[in-house]
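C-alpha cells please, single chain.
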Amino acid sequence: MLKQLEIEEKWGTYAEVVGLYKTEPDSRLKIRLLEIKLAYEGKKSEEIAEIVAEAGSTVREHINRYNRRGYEGLKDIAHPEAESIMNDEEMAEINAALMQSPREAGINSSNWTGRTVRKWIERKFDKKVGQTTSYNIMHRLKYTN
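Here you go.
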C-alpha cells in the first residue's frame, strides 16, 4: 500500500493553490494544480489519478515536483530543439524519391515503408537512421497521417 504523500506548505497554502488553480490559463498546469489541491484535501494519489485520468505515478511525480520547487516545479522544463539529422536539400531529395516507386529509386520493393526509406537514405547519403526516424521523415513530408 502506498504511503499518502503530504504537501509541503512552504510553497503555499491551500487557499493559494486554489487561487492559482482558478486563474491558471495553461491546461496542463491547471490539471497539476488540481492534483495538488486534491492532495491538500487528503486524497491519495490513486484517487487523484482516477479523477484527472492520469497514472498514479504521474500524480506522485507532480506532487514530488511541487514539494521540491513549488509552482515552478509543476512547469515543464524547456528542452532545446533537436537538430535534424537531414538537412533541407536532403529532405528535398527524399521527397523527390518518395514521389517515384521504390524500384525507380533503386530499392527492390513495391511500396515505401520505414524500412525502405531507411535503406534508401543509407545508400544515398551514407547516413544511418532508425526505422522510427524514417517514419518521422515521411510524416514531416506529409506521406503519412
